[in-house]
Recover the amino acids of this structure.
């Protein structure tokens, strides 16, 4: 088994699976299993072990840090169907397994947006909500005539359907460990290549013909649907639990391009928005110590 | 009736050939919680081509997957898999199937020669924008119709402008002047928006079939 070390990264103390609605969800934990739970929720096309460096810092402060691989990601089962609501139901299944009491939840990117919706629908599950660069805003639209926009949408939809016709036999592309790390570097250009090599060893599997990311090959970037990103922000002002939002100042491929002035008016009463001007979308990976300290100080209020 | 199973990702979709014929196929899409009819409906008797009916994922004899995660867009992909199999078709949808038929007409205008939208279960869908609707889980085992499908597809968002987009896509690329026929009496907001678009006619199911008969 190939092993790559990264300074500060620690394998989870406990790895196991939970059957949520019949789908096997992989759960990873750091810290004392009798401590109070704190949930970390990863972003789209990521996996729970992307918290290998960040989570231990929270665990050392006395939390039982729990994360899970969303269906189709990491070590969780590849499901037949994927959807936003299904991800939220899976989250409820995992969280309910560990506690019925309000607990702090930290969500990154899509994980943050999922948790905003769950916090609005089921606030009793949250003692605190931290959102790490998962605050969507209205997407800037290209300066196109309406019929051009319609045509582009038609081509997106046909492309997605073409992809669905091939998913039954699709496989992720195999490569060397270095090739997978370099591929990921295109999406994570601000992260050290040593970290990306480490991620390959925990987020990919080594087959006879090379490494493949474990992510379900039926998933792909893009897609379409009726949801508008800015609708997520409409849930923010009504949240009643302590809220900390962190917005990255540096734009990069996986980021959402949200600007502070788009979110500040939506921050709930008593909530806080921190803008990390020098950091990109993966704020907690670029600066794990800074982000852990910020979150732990935030959680001390009301613990 | 004969049944073929088509693969859509990890799901086996049951596509029933209800009747033989020559020429363009008629593809029937059922409503939410329903399944394909066992025989070709009387109203389709005059149709010259073969008549097919698809069981959506989690319905009829198609696979009932674990854990839900249904969306109208995935049902669209189900219908697209069937369309790839039957070729050029006129599509008749009931309820949820009507919404999917509209989407299919916009997504594959070169293959859909008329979509007929009829009343039926799942015609309304969910809201037109964000809500505080909560979440409910049903533990397995699941039988058809999958309870997760009933939950997920009765709350899927259907903004009117999203539906209108599919009409415009259908009109832009379709050969027919009126690629969408609305036979439904009930008009939820998405359908009312579709009716307001150029390229949509309102008429009875019988008239719509006559309109699209090759």
């Amino acid at each position: 088994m190939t092993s790559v070390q990264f300074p500060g990264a620690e394998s989870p103390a406990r790895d196991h699976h939970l059957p949520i609605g019949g789908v096997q969800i992989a759960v990873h934990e750091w810290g004392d299993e009798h401590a109070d739970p704190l949930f970390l929720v990863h972003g789209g096309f990521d996996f729970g072990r992307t918290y290998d460096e960040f989570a231990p810092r929270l665990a050392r402060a006395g939390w039982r840090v729990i994360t899970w691989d969303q269906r189709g990601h990491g070590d969780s089962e590849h499901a037949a169907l994927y959807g936003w609501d299904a991800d939220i139901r899976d989250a409820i299944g995992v969280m309910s397994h560990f506690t019925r009491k309000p607990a702090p939840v930290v969500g990154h990117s899509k994980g943050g947006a999922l948790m905003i919706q769950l916090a609005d629908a089921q606030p009793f599950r949250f003692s605190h909500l931290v959102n790490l660069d998962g605050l969507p805003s209205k997407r800037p639209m290209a300066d196109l005539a309406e019929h051009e926009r319609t045509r582009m949408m038609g081509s997106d939809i046909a492309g997605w359907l073409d992809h669905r016709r091939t998913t039954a036999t699709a496989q992720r592309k195999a490569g060397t460990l270095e090739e997978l790390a370099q591929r990921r570097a295109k999406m994570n250009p601000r992260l050290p290549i040593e970290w990306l090599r480490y991620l390959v060893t925990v987020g990919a599997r080594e087959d006879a013909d090379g490494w493949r990311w474990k992510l379900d090959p039926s998933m792909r970037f893009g897609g379409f649907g009726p949801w508008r990103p800015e609708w997520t922000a409409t849930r923010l002002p009504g949240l009643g639990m302590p809220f900390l939002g962190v917005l990255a100042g540096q734009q990069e491929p996986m980021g959402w391009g949200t600007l502070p002035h788009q979110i500040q008016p939506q921050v709930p009463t008593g909530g806080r928005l921190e803008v990390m001007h020098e950091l990109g979308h993966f704020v907690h990976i670029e600066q794990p110590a800074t982000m852990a300290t910020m979150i732990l100080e935030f959680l001390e209020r009301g613990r | 009736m004969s049944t073929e199973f088509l693969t859509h990702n990890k799901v086996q979709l049951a596509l029933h050939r209800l009747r033989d014929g020559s020429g363009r196929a008629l593809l029937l899409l059922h409503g939410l919680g329903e399944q394909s009819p066992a025989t070709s409906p009387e109203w389709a008797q005059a149709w010259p081509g073969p008549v097919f009916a698809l069981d959506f994922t989690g319905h009829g004899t198609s696979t009932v997957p674990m854990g839900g995660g249904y969306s109208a867009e995935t049902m669209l992909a189900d219908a697209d898999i069937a369309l790839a199999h039957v070729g050029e078709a006129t599509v008749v949808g009931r309820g949820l199937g009507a919404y999917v038929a509209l989407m299919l007409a916009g997504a594959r205008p070169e293959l859909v020669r008329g979509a007929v939208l009829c009343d039926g279960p799942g015609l309304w869908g969910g809201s037109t924008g964000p809500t505080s609707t909560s979440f409910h889980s049903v533990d397995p085992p699941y039988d058809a119709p999958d309870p997760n499908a009933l939950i997920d597809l009765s709350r899927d968002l259907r903004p009117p402008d999203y539906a209108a987009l599919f009409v415009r896509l259908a009109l832009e690329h379709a050969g027919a002047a009126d690629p969408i026929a609305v036979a439904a009496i009930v008009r939820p907001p998405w359908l009312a928006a579709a009716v307001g678009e150029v390229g949509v006619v309102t008429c009875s199911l019988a008239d719509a079939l006559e309109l699209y008969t090759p």
User: Anything to note?
Assistant: Chain B has six helices and eight strands. Chain B has one domain: 2-129+140-212. The helical segments of chain B are 72-86, 96-107, 147-152, 160-173, 189-195, 205-212. Strands of chain B lie at 2-8, 11-19, 25-29, 51-54, 89-94, 112-118, 180-182, 200-202.
